[in-house]
Amino acid sequence: MKLWNLVWILLCASASGSEEEETFSLSDLSIASALALTSEIPQEAAILELEQRGQKRILFGNDMEKLEEEVIRICRLLRVRADRRALRRKAVEKARAEKEYIELRSGRPPMFWIPLRVHAVWEKMEVKLACTVLASPPPQVTWYKNGVRIDPRLAPAGKYKIKNKFGMLTLHISRCSMEDSAEYSVEVKNQYGEAYSFATVLVRKYYGMESGFDSEIYRSESIIADFAFPLKPLFSREKEPFTLSCYFSSDLLEHQRDITWFRDGELLQNSECRELKYQDREASLTVSCAYKEDEGFYTIRVPSLDGYKEQTTYVFVKDAAAETAGAPGSPLNLKCHDVNKDCLILSWVAPSDNGGSPILGYYIERCVAGSEDWVPCNDKPVKTCRYPVLGLAEGQTYQFRVKAVNKEGISHPSKASDPVTTYDPSNDKRVTVIPYDEGRTIEIFQDDLEGHIKIPLPPTNVHASEVREDYVALAWDEPDPRGREPLNYYVEKLIVGSNSWQMVNLDMPVNSPRFALFDLVKGKSYCFRVRSANKYGISEPSLPSEPVTAGAKLATLPPPSQVLAFRDTKTSVVLQWDKLENGLEPLGYYIYCRETGTEEWQTVNNKPVTCNEFTVPGLQPGKEYVFCVKSVNEAGLSESSPETNPIVVRPAIACPSAPHGFVLLNCGKADMTIGWKPPKRKGGTKILGYFLDQHDTSELDWHEVNIQPIPQRVYTVSNLEEGHVYEFRGRAMNMAGVGEVSEPSDLFKCEEWTMPEPGISHRLIPEATLGSTVVHRSRVRGMETNK
């Protein structure tokens, strides 16, 4: 503003040039001010320059023009400066608003990216609890010990150190004592929410080796129950009960009693035919009436300190004795698909045992759930393991079972399927549910929107959904709009090459957009069309389907190309085979075995396994067996795979486990005599020797002690340095190779033992063993005495 006033003064001074005074005129002062502004020199210096000139400035002519130009230049300069300041203010304001918007938009409640974890430390050691948190804006952090806030100012100096750097939260506890064993938690909170993380710190106390316990934690770990014995395979028979039991080394703690059982990865629960219980260090699973569906891998899972422990075994369920000699085994795994108002599709798995002759087909039976009145669904045997069941009542609940048949007879019926209720699956699509007002809903039915339709429209998209050797299954879409009245459907067929359409179901109208046709001429092609009908009339026919050739036989899968057998234990063999080529996915595999010298194949599993490796238990030790595998699909069983090479059932040879229990037997100035215990697992053959390593605690690397294996479990290590501390480790060797390395031994100091010689034995008490006397010998100073 002062600059603009200066410009105004300059303009006024230019009009007062007629005054004649001895002193400086206003124009002179104005020119001095303008000079000071334009030339960036003090105004006093400009006035001094005018005094030295000693003359009055009278502006006229060229001087006035120059002054005006100078004023214009100053005005432009002032405008540029003002614009720049305004733009700067606007930019700063916009940046501030953008920053606030970004902060507001990026705001999020706290979340622990890496939570706290449990720590166990020895007394007088330090521990650091750390976690990573994500939050915007940065949250407030509070640490707690057993629910009480931690204030480092109230604790001893240096006891707690709390840091928060770039979302990394740490709590450092120095010189831990038994009182520091507690549950620690951290709370993070900002304006959008809060989060918590918890961890337990367990401080162990050393009591000394003579106490029998290495630490306080050992006492608690010693009472945590573990599996007493491994689970063994169980063999049962169809229609008979079985119990799978697991025993523990001690009583389960309260948190360990949440025992879970699984079959083939599926969680098992108590039911009418299954009981799970735990009592007296025994967890058991009892099935009152076994079926082949109960066969599989059973796993028991028990909680532990570091998660859970589990064991797995396989339960075999053999076929029940056939009523007719040579009859096949019963089918299994019945399932219902594509359930509609009056039909569904039933599938099952072929049995592993065909009774010695090929299976000719299957008979299907149904009953109303809760009754035992079984009604046959087919007159002729079905050749594949899939069949459409028609003529069901809407809203009724059914159960199904299947029997296999060969030339010798009919099998036992399969386990009944789970109850299934017929319904109209399109009802869900014709109802729109709109939620409102905290849990309330509005239902809008499509029937109310379509209005009254008398003569229905024809169906659309008529096609063959399944083509099997025994039947052709048709499917189509309902007319749109359908109308309020219920619809029935009539199916027509046409042999390709003729012009005669024939009504297929005149006596049995269809209520669902599904239908199956049987007894079609094999090898001929058919087209199909459908009419919809209601109480007002019948529609025009739909567009015909694509030609369908009846009688296409579903082929069985090829068997695995290669099956290998390996030794496992004295009663089991491990089998491995390749997956099927070209991406073929079977329902599973059946395994068969026979003893060499015999012709009768025995089924190993009666429920298909989906894996490519299986352990066959229950074999006779020392016997020689061969094995083969078959693939399973809806068409049945494949041919047998090539037989494996004969294999004798013997324990597999493997590398031994590590030796353990290293002790110091004698010590000199530069040598130590070390002893140890043999491996717990010898690998199925005798131990040929041991290799030792030594480690000086003053160095970083381990060094070999011997190059040739040591046949005994005692060895003297020489060339040691007196006063140094050493530790040792070892490996065992057998015919299979060198086993895993052991854990390092305790620390032994190399210093000569100088204990005094023992004195004469005294107060020896003879043992009485069945009237005979026992000779006690004591060696004292090289002399042997008998007592």
From TrEMBL:
InterPro entries, alphabetized: FN3_dom, FN3_sf, Ig-like_dom, Ig-like_dom_sf, Ig-like_fold, Ig_I-set, Ig_sub, Ig_sub2
One Pfam family in the UniProt entry: I-set
Domain of life: Eukaryota
Ig-like domain sequence ranges: 109-202, 238-299
Protein's name in the database: Myomesin 3
SUPFAM superfamilies, per the entry: Fibronectin type III, Immunoglobulin
Gene3D superfamilies: Immunoglobulins (2.60.40.10)
Ranges where the Fibronectin type-III domain occurs: 330-425, 458-553, 559-652, 655-753
Organism: Accipiter nisus
Listed GO CC annotations: M band
Signal peptide: 1-17
Record GO biological process: sarcomere organization
Keywords associated with the record: Immunoglobulin domain, Repeat, Signal
